[in-house]
Design brief:
CATH superfamily of the largest domain: Response regulator
CATH topology of the largest domain: Rossmann fold
Order of helices and strands: HEHEEHEHEHEHHEHEHEHHE
Low-confidence stretches: none
Number of strands: 10
Distance between the termini: 41 Å
Length: about 250
Amino acid sequence: MAAELVSRKVDLIVTSGTPSTLAAKSATSTIPIIFMFVADPVGTGLVASLARPGGNVTGFSSLAVELTPKRLELLCELVPEAKVIALLVNPNNVNTEGFVRYAQEAARAKGVQLPVLMAANEGEIDTAFASLVQQQAGGLVVSGDQLFTQLREQIVALASRHAVPAIYIVSGFVAAGGLVSYGIDDQAVPHQAGIYAGRILKGEKPADLPVQQPTKFELVINLKTATALGLAIPLMLLARADEAIE
């Protein structure tokens, strides 16, 4: 798809997520590229630095990897009795190593066990949840991955079926019935990317536009799901929520 866009000689390419951005960068070194929802643009080689991207690529980082410890911490607040918190990752995601490393550090600090569950398709997600139940996990952290976002209804349904409290990176999971999410305002990013697109189309260079990092993070809780799981949301946590779905 990236090669097709380049062959059409488009003036600008906007991408979402790391895989599509890497594909676009591999396809062209001249057409400007604006990325959205990329966890680690420097670590994956998309840009030279956040302040000075260089080349033809710039955009908006999601900090998805760096927020992993905070998600595990929030889940521990929700289920303080849990001794085992699982982490669901896609082995094909270039950021998986980072997700695992950050989660392991946070789990050690909290004194909980952290089994890592791998899933790269629908069937493997089913298998991962079966493994989660066998390991008697008291909670689940779902890492950031486009596949998981696309299959969020399946993941949310499995978490409900197995009565596993889970935390996600975007509020779309909570809107679909998931328990809680913590991450960036994903509705604002496309608007910001549009502003960058306008500036580039008017003559500015991606190399001169710094990669933007989020400054606002949203905590969304589904109270109906909490009730179904038999969880009492701590008042301090509820007070910090940006949105509570009833």
